[in-house]
Specification:
446 residues; alpha/beta; Rossmann fold; 3 domains; five-stranded parallel β-sheet; 15% strand; globular; binds (2Z)-2-iminopentanedioic acid
Length: 446
């Protein structure tokens, strides 16, 4: 690695040794930047890396709320406003028991480059809470969201910071959060994305991440004169991203054979189609957080405590959570002849898995490129809200396709430029970094 990048990384490790996930994401990005940093000494001279790895500000607050038993519960809430040189801070809110500040710093850092790749005016941020939605009632979710927004609202604004959903935050939660914001602020602002289609949301936003990832897969396959038609796809997760992938893969003639949850995975060799697709939505809203229900309902195999990466598939699309595919899983996929890995989640591959996959020559799309369709559609939602207008589904889909095609081209071209053909990790990091770093140079030290 270039000396400057190494120094910045080492100093970060000394400063935040406990922020493992954040260090992992920075290591992943700066590992690609040696040539670009060598090429343009202005980056070092202006301390671009040092400024990029430190969030503009981190908001941390208490979220007290009352549960159905009448007990007072306390959770931690956060918003990491990382970088806004390319637009308002933009990125999801994650409600999950595992959420820490390190998780949100890693997600916020990724988001800067992802949002940069979309070509839209979107800065990078992320937020959330260690609130665990599992087995909570609708009313409890509402109480929690209202309390969360009681602090969060003062930091938001349509040109300032615009959160969205992420793991544990879907249309229902965005509804409660938006209602609370609107009342507290006394203003109807386009301040959250993923809103209901009837009150400022964009058509196709729920599908956009999964559709976008599948469009990215298609672009990659096109470079090899290959196609999704007839391919077997293993997917993890059972949430929003997974649901979009299943729908689009079906439409393009592929077959999705797995889903997973914290309890294990299901194997449905005939493919997840028809009413089974809609059942994904029922599972999420049930709050039970398990996929065994699918196996019981449709009489398919359930493998408890296992991950889907042991099945034979042409394409693997991890759509659940960070570090859900390790070296061992990657070795299994390689052994089984998997040709493509496309990330729907953020950083689902460990650094070890990424290394294995690269060595095996698998076509591998990192999430900051392949899952950017979600935030891109959020960008479209912001444009619609700003003009008090509404795009048609066809218009959104066309714009989404264009963004994904353009991200693919940027990755492909950047990897070619530095003689690393088909290295999409390298290409995504370089292209994402250059746009944001050049904007920082243009805008001076701040
Ligand atoms: O990881 C992500 O890109 C998201 N959770 C979506 C962010 C957004 O602002 O739509």
């Amino acid at each position: 690695m270039n000396r400057y990048a190494t120094e910045v990384l080492e100093s970060l490790k000394r400063k935040y040794p406990w922020e493992e996930e954040f260090i992992q994401s920075v290591t992943e990005v700066v590992g690609s930047l040696s040539e670009v940093l060598d090429q343009n000494p202005n980056y070092k001279k202006n301390a671009i890396l040092e400024r990029l790895v430190e969030p503009d500000r981190t908001i941390s607050f208490k979220v007290p709320w009352r549960d159905n038993q009448g007990n007072v519960q306390i959770n931690n809430g956060y918003r990491v406003e990382f970088n806004n040189v390319l637009g308002p801070y933009k990125g999801g809110l994650r409600f999950h028991a595992s959420v820490t500040l390190s998780t949100l710093k890693f997600l916020g850092f990724e988001q800067i480059f992802k949002n940069s790749l979309t070509g839209l005016l979107l800065g990078g941020g992320k937020g959330g809470s260690d609130f665990n939605p599992r087995n909570r009632t609708d009313g409890e979710i509402e109480n929690f969201c209202q309390s969360f927004m009681m602090e969060m609202f003062r930091h938001l604004g349509p040109n300032k910071d615009v959160p969205a959903g992420d793991v544990g935050v879907g249309g229902r939660e965005i509804g409660y959060l938006f209602g609370a914001y609107r009342r507290l602020k006394g203003s109807f602002d386009g301040v959250l994305t993923g809103k209901g289609a009837g009150w400022g949301g964009s058509i196709l936003r729920p599908e956009a991440t999964g559709y976008g990832a599948t469009y990215f897969l298609k672009e990659m396959m096109d470079t090899r004169k290959d196609s999704i038609d007839g391919k077997t796809v293993a997917v993890s997760g059972f949430g929003n991203v997974c649901w979009g992938v299943v729908k689009k893969v079906n439409e393009l003639g592929g077959r999705v054979v797995t889903l997973s949850g914290p309890d294990g995975y299901i194997y449905d060799p005939e493919g997840i189609r028809g009413e089974k697709v809609d059942y994904l939505l029922d599972m999420r809203i049930s709050g039970r957080d398990q996929v065994a229900d699918y196996a019981n309902k449709f009489k398919v195999e359930f493998r408890r405590g296992k991950r889907p990466w042991e099945v034979k598939c042409d394409v693997a699309m991890p759509c659940a959570i960070q570090n859900e595919m390790d070296e061992h899983d990657a070795a299994n996929l390689i052994k089984n002849g998997t040709k493509y890995i496309v990330e729907g989640a953020n950083l689902p591959l460990t650094l070890g898995a990424m290394k294995k996959v690269a060595e095996a020559g698998i076509m591998y799309a990192p999430g900051k490129a392949s899952n950017a369709g979600g935030v891109a559609c959020s960008g479209f939602e912001m444009s619609q809200d700003a003009l008090f207008t509404k795009w048609s589904g066809a218009q959104v889909d066309e714009a989404l396709k264009n963004v994904m095609k353009n991200i693919h081209t940027q990755c492909y071209e950047a990897s070619k430029e530095f003689n690393r053909p088909n290295d999409y990790v390298f290409g995504a990091n370089v292209a994402g970094f250059r746009r944001v770093a050049n904007a920082m140079l243009d805008q001076g030290i701040n």
